[in-house]
Amino acid sequence: MTTPRPLTPDMLAERWQCSAETVRMMVKRGELRGFRVGRMIRIPLAAVEEHECQTSASDACVADSASTGTTPTPESGGVISLRHAPERKPKRKAGTDT
């Protein structure tokens, strides 16, 4: 049996419907296993499948996989509350009077 070719960030971005830069940042942060060939990043198919299994609720995944989120508690009335970061104010440029 042959080993499948590793994916490029562009190939994985198309599969996940996100940007290639998002994939590159996931590798950089260590969220996704990848390796470099010179300046190019490659992601093994096994690493992609591991990450997909950890972040999905698929029946094909192991029952002990990571949780995909929180379950609403009866006390919350079935509502999940999300907090948003405060709005950032634009920085002023040095030397401008306003």
What is the strand and helix layout of this fold?
Blueprint: H1 9-16, H2 20-29, E1 35-37, E2 40-42, H3 45-55
Antiparallel strand pairs: 1-2
Could you characterize what this model shows?
- The protein is mainly α and 98 residues long.
- The chain has a domain of 54 residues.
- The chain has three helices and two strands, in the order ααββα.
- Strands 1-2 form a two-stranded antiparallel ribbon.
- It is elongated, with a radius of gyration of 20 Å.
- The chain starts with 8 loop residues before the first helix and ends in a 43-residue tail after the last helix.
For the sheet with most strands, the description reads:
2 strands, antiparallel
Structural class by secondary-structure content:
mainly alpha
The tally of beta strands, per DSSP, is 2
How much strand? 5-15%
Write down the Rg: 20 Å
